[in-house]
Design brief:
- 0% of the residues lie in helices and 44% in strands.
- The chain is built from no helices and 22 strands.
């Protein structure tokens, strides 16, 4: 809505703001976090109505907000309440935040979970009750978390959860190659909830009956996303390529 792009800069404590119409640099925001210090963590950033939500690059990635974007932006550290963040997503009204959690980072295989917190007090509202012994693995560490309020579905790693009851697992994607050290094979990386499909890095699945729909055309994708028309895009960094495919209806 702001027609702005916000970028977290690795190796600095600045968030850069750009105008979407020409990608011109608007300003830099100081957010107070230490510079990126641990190679396996991933920065994340989301834009709210008048604040940014940012995950730092520390060993236990912590959540920050940058408040008052239209006035004097101020960084607020919430890492004491919300840390170990692998990725996060906001509810439409911005009152709740879901994130998948990992104890520390690269600190053993246990301690993976999904939490739902209230964004006013950062108090815990709900959490999963499974761990890696039940095939809810830490790896891979680059998985997103995907949420659809209309269907109340939340996807994290190889699980589909009831978003209002995280103890309820609706489906688990399993494969012969699933392993405690390497993680599950079929993890959710992108979803088109309107078309009821989910994409792992190798396969598109129906979110209605969870059956395989078709393979992902691009191999070795680093990121996947659907556009508003249901076309699946794969970013393949080592090829410098953005590859798309049109998905058949499940």
């Amino acid at each position: 809505e702001r027609e702005r792009l916000f970028v977290v800069n690795s190796g600095s404590t600045l968030i850069s703001e750009y105008a979407l119409n020409d990608l011109g640099h608007v300003r830099d925001l100081q957010w107070g976090a230490s510079v990126h210090a641990f190679s396996d963590t991933h920065f994340h950033i989301r834009c709210g109505v008048d604040r940014l939500y940012v995950v730092d690059g520390q060993w236990a990635p912590g959540l920050w907000t940058v408040e008052n974007l239209d006035g004097s932006p101020t960084a607020v550290d919430h890492t004491e309440q919300v840390s170990g963040v692998g990725d996060f997503v906001l509810s439409a009204d911005e009152t709740e935040l879901y994130y998948w959690y990992q104890y520390g980072w690269g600190a053993g295989l246990a301690g993976t979970a999904v939490y739902r917190v209230e964004t006013g007090t950062w108090s815990l509202l709900d959490e999963t009750l499974i761990d890696y012994q039940d095939a809810f693995y830490r790896d891979p560490l680059d998985t997103p978390i995907l949420f659809d309020e209309s269907s109340l579905l939340l996807l994290a790693k190889n699980r589909v959860f009831d978003a209002f009851n995280l103890t309820k697992v609706l489906f688990t994607f399993t494969s012969d190659g699933d392993d405690v050290f390497d993680g599950a094979v079929q993890n959710a990386y992108a979803a088109d909830f309107a078309a009821t499909v989910m994409a792992s890095k190798t396969q598109v699945f129906s979110l209605t009956d969870y059956a395989a729909v078709e393979p992902v055309a691009a191999s070795g994708a680093d990121q996947l996303f659907f556009d508003k028309n249901g076309r699946l895009y794969a970013l393949v960094v080592n090829r410098g390529a953005l590859v798309y495919q049109d998905i058949a209806a499940p």
